[in-house]
Automatic annotation (TrEMBL):
Single GO MF descriptor: potassium:proton antiporter activity
Protein name: Cation/H+ exchanger transmembrane domain-containing protein
Residues of the Cation/H+ exchanger transmembrane domain: 25-395
Membrane spanning residue stretches: 16-36, 48-65, 77-94, 106-130, 211-233, 254-279, 299-319, 340-358, 378-395
GO annotation (BP), single: regulation of intracellular pH
Gene3D superfamilies in the cross-refs: 6.10.140.1330
InterPro entries: Cation/H_exchanger_CPA1 (IPR018422), Cation/H_exchanger_TM (IPR006153), NaH_exchanger (IPR004709)
Top-rank lineage group of the source organism: Eukaryota
Cell inner membrane as UniProt keyword: no
Transit peptide is among the record's keywords: no
Location(s) in or outside the cell: Membrane
Pfam families to which the protein is assigned, alphabetical: Na_H_Exchanger (PF00999)
Length: 404
């Protein structure tokens, strides 16, 4: 498997042409997004999708339908370079009081809810796809589909929620989104580790045990790295000599937590998220004032660029001619597959949010802490969108099938 991005260019063209154009498009996304920021329903993510679609259309026309991409996506690029700053900044900027106040509810939605959705989608596709005569899928593929389509993307929903006006709703949607992504990735990796051609009760228990091990070990590693970074910076106090060293150490320690998790085959998402929470609570208060301002904006900037990069590529990828060729060969079957998946996502989401909200409300004494029906609808709707994590897992699944 090639690592990173592959250039879509002729043999005699320099790869720098593709990179230059893509960076120019990133700048255009930021500029146009800034000009449209007064519109509440339009943000940089939507702008990047639209620009990606327009760019993909132009490339299709200029290449006479051969391609819609400037660069070809590799899921390793996403997981190693683009995802860490997004998740770390989510943990670093999270309102810890609200997050931990609703921690059990967030874990119910993000972990247990994802498992419920995973089971419904996996079993549903296994039963319904057979009626469409899709014969090339096996057990691992059905379980992989369950993990892929259980990964939600709540970024767009958060753009229209005010953290100050609706702190409970914002905390639940945000927290569930992060834990859900981590659960989906952990679940997907756990599936790939086992031979599931013959599922028995012992293998199912082993799979579940491996899932909880990955979840707990990843969280513990993130907490450990966060505490170590706080201890090192407090004892050595780099700020007396160099703000640059403080900022560099914080950035590198954050990335180290993610890479260590990947090295030990754990969940980098969970690790770097909890590392971000620990570093914002302990490490950040041990650095100089200038370092605090710098790190806060540095992490936010890296996360922002990564998100724009992903949405821009998704816009171009929607016009991928190879995918549309497959659809055109059997449009009826493609519509049937899409309809089944959409229906299962709707059902799986409802089966997780509404019952779990009822259980969560039973444990709440204060009425203000309970999740109202309208709030449940918003949380249900927020989890219907699928984003970058689903796309990266899907690419991973496709590449695995090619390697077999």
């Amino acid at each position: 498997m090639n690592f990173g991005l592959r250039m879509v260019s002729e043999p005699d063209q320099a790869p720098i042409h593709s990179i230059t154009l893509f960076v120019a498009l990133l700048c255009a996304c930021i500029l146009i997004g800034h000009l449209l920021e007064k519109h509440r329903w339009i943000n940089e993510s939507i702008t990047a999708l639209a620009i990606g679609l327009c760019t993909g259309t132009l490339i299709l026309l200029t290449t006479q339908g051969r391609s819609s991409h400037i660069l070809l996506f590799d899921e390793q690029l996403f997981f190693i370079y683009l995802l860490p700053p997004i998740i770390f900044n989510a943990g670093f900027q999270v309102k810890k009081k609200q997050f931990f106040r609703n921690f059990m509810t967030i874990m119910l939605f993000g972990a247990v809810g994802t498992l419920i959705s995973f089971i419904i989608i996996s079993l549903g596709t296994a039963q319904l796809f057979k009626k469409l005569d899709i014969g090339f899928l096996d057990t691992v593929d059905y379980l992989g589909l369950g993990a892929i389509f259980s990964a939600t993307d709540s970024v767009c929903t958060l753009q229209v929620l005010d953290q100050e006006e609706t702190p409970l709703l914002y905390s639940l949607v945000f927290g569930e989104g992060v834990v859900n992504d981590a659960t989906s990735v952990v679940l997907f990796n756990a599936i790939l580790r086992f031979d599931l051609s013959h599922i028995t009760s012992s293998s199912a228990i082993h799979l579940l045990g491996n899932f909880f091990y990955l979840f707990g070990a990843s969280t513990a590693l993130g907490i450990a790295v966060g505490l170590i970074s706080a201890y090192i910076i407090k004892k050595l106090y780099f700020g007396r000599h160099s703000t640059d060293r403080e900022v560099a150490l914080m950035i590198l320690m954050a990335y180290l937590s993610y890479i260590m998790a990947e090295l030990f085959n754990l969940s980098g998402i969970l690790t770097v998220f909890f590392c971000g929470i620990l570093m914002s609570h302990y490490t950040w208060h041990n650095v100089s004032e200038s370092s605090r301002v710098t790190t806060k904006h540095a992490f936010a900037t890296m996360s922002f660029i990564s998100e724009i990069f992903i949405f821009l590529y998704v816009g171009m990828d929607a016009l991928d001619i190879e995918k549309w060729k497959i659809v055109s060969k059997s449009p009826g079957k493609s519509i049937g597959v899409s309809s089944i998946l959409l229906g299962l996502v709707l059902v799986g989401r409802a089966a997780s949010i509404f019952p779990l909200s009822f259980i969560s409300n039973l444990t709440k004494k204060s009425q203000s802490d309970k999740i109202g029906f309208k709030q449940q609808i918003v949380i249900w709707w927020a989890g219907l969108m699928r984003g970058a994590v689903s796309m990266a897992l899907a690419y991973n699944q496709v590449n695995l099938r090619r390697d077999l």
